[in-house]
Design a protein that fits this description.
Elements: H1 2-14, H2 16-36, H3 51-62, E1 72-78, H4 88-102, E2 108-112, E3 126-133, H5 142-156, E4 161-165, H6 178-194, H7 197-225, H8 231-259, H9 264-291, H10 299-330, H11 337-341, H12 343-352, H13 356-366, H14 368-383, E5 391-392, H15 404-416, E6 424-428, H16 432-443, E7 448-451, E8 455-456, E9 463-469, H17 476-488, E10 493-496, H18 498-532, H19 536-561, E11 577-578, H20 581-609, H21 614-642, H22 649-681, H23 690-695, H24 704-709, H25 717-720
Parallel strand pairs: 5-11
Antiparallel strand pairs: 1-3, 1-4, 2-3, 6-9, 6-10, 7-9, 8-9
Helix pairs in contact: 1-2, 1-9, 1-10, 2-7, 2-10, 4-5, 6-7, 6-21, 7-8, 7-10, 8-9, 8-10, 8-21, 9-10, 9-18, 9-20, 13-21, 14-19, 14-22, 18-19, 18-20, 19-20, 19-22, 20-21, 20-22, 21-22
Length: 724
């Protein structure tokens, strides 16, 4: 592989104009496709294999249109203290609002009058108007949303408190300035690392090009593949981070090759052949983790994983081709002015004064047990909140109280009971007698506030029953009620609705976690065994990852569920952690964690293979790689932290979780626990059974074949060939 990538790097360097033109053309083509494609909509959400999904499918079949995924809204009215919404003056205002809503948009299917639809609370203080639309929330026009808001505003000024809930007001997540700040911080880190604006600009430029191609392609194919409006956010987040990092490693190696006195084309080829090999394997681990999300069997999650994996592949290809091409344009400006002036004596100065990576590695080697205990116990303490994890899907109840959706949610809870916002829909696959029997059975259970009579379909072979729980949708009591209904009825009775879907979704996430971990960790273990020719090093890498991801999950629970430091991160309302968060974090962070493992430990193994003692190899790896790996981690943290500024709670939570996970994994696990464990293991760390060594193909990450191909001789040159 190293030889092939070496040739690829030299070829891209020589034909830099053609390579650059091809990537610019791809970016333009993707941009045109995105600009001319229909706007992305909300991806259809389904949970194959669950009872809630089977009930929804049966509902679609027996009650055409009843299970439609069109947007809905509830305009909630509350009378002043001591008055009722049934008072003539207030009733006139409500009916005027109903008429205004009906005339407000041709996208509306129906508007239910609360006085005829039994949508008035028992004490008469609260009423709501249900509005159903033909299309989902993302396809509603601005005029339709404005008509909905305006109807509420007009009623608000006539003596009633009016709020609007439902998903009709849902829009694309707003992008804050945080992402821009993250990129700016990444640029500052690159300038400090390289001491050259040109060298710092190359990773940023190529990462932006890669993300531009990836996100534009997703946008262009969104409607065709039903990718949904949020799919591109993950691709942008991951693509930007790995795009910068992969380019960073190759540019760093290129500068090291120039410092050895090689000409620019040869340096580009060697940088691509050595650091590029690590980039390929690091990229493969990320792709495995993202594509592995398919085992969860949630179509939305699968599409997000594949789309993000495609962006990672683009980032790898750009690092292997466009970076060498741009290095050809950059000339000697890729090296800072001070480095150019002092190139002759720089190597001697480095030998006389060990860098920070060397000093830290020596400290860890002297006190491996202390470092290991502090690292493991520290992460273990942070992981404690993860034991209190409560999962759920977001609804209006977790939105900030400053939003009209949250206020409408609270008004409905106060007027109609805590369970009103999470009704259960029971679908009976049978005749009227079966449906009536089901109603009687449900009424014998505990935990319900209201059970409506069965509503049969036209054919008389199915019926719907609405059950309102006593408690709030996310409570344990409501979950128990769902299970009790399912246990007390037969296979011809199915429970669905948002609350039941939430419960089934959370259960599916829990059931899929172990198989997903087994698949992803197993494949990555095999991949790392190929790279490191060791059994214990990949095992240590996997265990360290599990420690960092559980600690990160503990931090997410503490901030988003418990509210610790919530105001610092813009968390206005605490609530359950989104059901997909744990498995999503496992998938993404595992791939990123293996990046640092590959980049940091590959150099250690090369030094050990060339005769250094285990302790010396650890110091060598840190001397050559710690600075660049540190810069890469800081950049990833900055990029992910930028998404904390978004208003969408899911994106905010993902950005925070990934940023914290990278912080723990890079600086605690890879920089502290890994060298401590390697120091304690000594020679045993690099043990591989002879039969396995013969069976595994040699991928030559160390660049032995490259040294022979380029005519490299002598033992002093070989270690330099694999600086990552």
């Amino acid at each position: 592989m190293a030889t092939f990538l070496y040739k690829l790097g030299r070829s891209a360097f020589r034909r830099r104009r053609l390579v650059a033109l091809l990537w610019v053309a791809l970016l333009a083509l993707a941009g045109v496709g995105a600009a001319t494609a229909p706007a992305a909509t909300s991806s259809s959400f389904s949970i194959p294999g669950t009872e809630a999904q089977r009930a929804f499918d049966l509902l679609e079949e027996r009650f055409p249109g009843a299970g439609a995924d069109g947007a809905t809204a509830r305009v909630v009215f509350k009378a002043p203290e001591g008055q009722k919404v049934t008072d003539p003056a207030h009733k006139a205002v409500v009916e005027e609002t109903v008429a205004a809503l009906k005339a407000g948009s041709d996208q509306i299917v129906s508007v239910a009058d609360p006085y005829t639809a039994q949508a008035v609370s028992q004490n008469g203080s609260t009423a709501y108007v249900s509005v159903a639309y033909k299309v989902n929330a993302m396809e509603l026009t601005d005029e339709t949303r404005e008509a909905l808001k305006q109807a509420g505003h007009q009623a608000q000024g006539k003596g009633l408190t009016v709020e609007v809930g439902g998903d009709a007001l849902q829009t694309m997540p707003e992008t804050g300035a945080g992402e821009v700040v993250g990129v700016v911080i990444a640029g500052i880190v690159l300038v400090i690392t390289f001491g050259s604006l040109v060298a710092a600009g190359l990773p940023l430029l190529t990462a932006i090009i890669g993300v531009g191609i990836g996100v534009s392609s997703i946008t262009a194919l969104a409607n065709v593949l039903d990718l949904g409006s949020t799919t591109s956010t993950l691709a942008m987040m991951i693509g930007l981070a790995v795009g910068i990092d992969y380019a960073l490693f190759i540019v760093s190696r290129y500068r090291a090759e120039l410092a050895e006195g090689r000409d620019r084309e040869e340096a580009a080829g060697r940088a691509t052949g050595t650091a590029g090999s690590a980039v390929v394997f690091a990229g493969l681990t990320v792709v495995i983790a993202l594509v592995g999300l398919a085992v969860v069997n949630i179509p939305m999650l699968t599409k997000m994983g594949f789309a993000a994996a495609g962006t990672v592949v683009i980032a790898v290809l750009i690092a292997l081709t466009l970076i060498p091409a741009l290095l050809g344009f950059a000339g000697d400006k890729v090296v800072g002015r001070k480095q150019r002036k002092g190139a002759a004596s720089e190597g001697d100065r480095k030998e006389e004064k060990p860098n920070g990576g060397t000093r830290w590695a020596r400290f860890v080697i002297r006190r491996p047990v202390l470092v290991l205990l502090v690292g493991v116990l520290g992460l273990g303490a942070i992981a404690v909140p993860a034991a209190s994890l409560e999962m759920g899907l977001p609804d209006d109840g977790v939105k900030p109280v400053s939003t009209t959706e949250r206020r409408a949610y609270d008004m409905l809870s106060d007027g109609f009971g805590p369970g009103f916002n999470g009704p259960l829909l029971v679908v009976v696959d049978g005749d009227r007698a079966t449906a009536d029997k089901t109603v009687s059975t449900i009424k014998k259970l505990e935990g319900w506030a209201a059970v409506t009579p069965a509503t049969p379909n036209k054919a008389g072979d199915a019926a719907m029953i609405t059950v309102v729980p006593k408690d709030r949708p996310s409570s344990v009591a409501t979950e128990n009620l769902v299970h009790d209904i399912r246990d007390a009825t037969g296979d011809d009775v199915l429970v669905t609705g948002a609350t039941a879907m939430n419960i089934d979704f959370s259960q599916k996430m829990n059931d899929a976690l172990v198989p997903y971990l087994a698949l992803v960790v197993g494949l990555a273990f095999l991949l790392l065994t190929l790279v490191f020719r060791s059994v214990l090093v990949p095992l240590k890498a996997a265990l360290g990852f599990l420690l960092s991801v559980v600690a990160a999950l503990g931090a997410v629970v503490a901030v988003f569920q418990w509210g610790w430091l919530g105001s610092l991160f813009g968390v206005e309302q605490t609530g359950p952690i989104m059901s997909m968060m744990p498995i999503f974090m496992v998938g993404v962070v595992f791939g990123l964690a293996m990046d640092y493992e590959v980049f940091l430990v590959t150099r250690m193994r090369e030094a050990y293979v060339h005769g250094e003692r285990p302790g010396e190899a650890i110091v060598t790896g840190f001397r050559h790689s710690a600075r660049v790996v540190t810069a890469a981690a800081v950049i990833m943290i900055a990029v992910f932290s930028g998404f904390i500024g978004m208003t969408d709670q899911m994106i905010k939570m993902i950005g925070f979780g990934l940023a914290v996970a990278v912080l723990f994994d890079a600086f605690v696990v890879r920089m502290a626990i890994v060298p401590a464990v390697l120091a304690l293991l000594g020679h045993k760390a690099w043990w591989l059974p002879k039969w396995l060594d013969r069976a595994l193909p040699n991928v030559d990450v160390e660049g032995e074949a490259l040294a022979a191909h380029t005519g490299g001789t002598g033992t002093e040159e070989k270690p330099d060939l694999v600086k990552v």
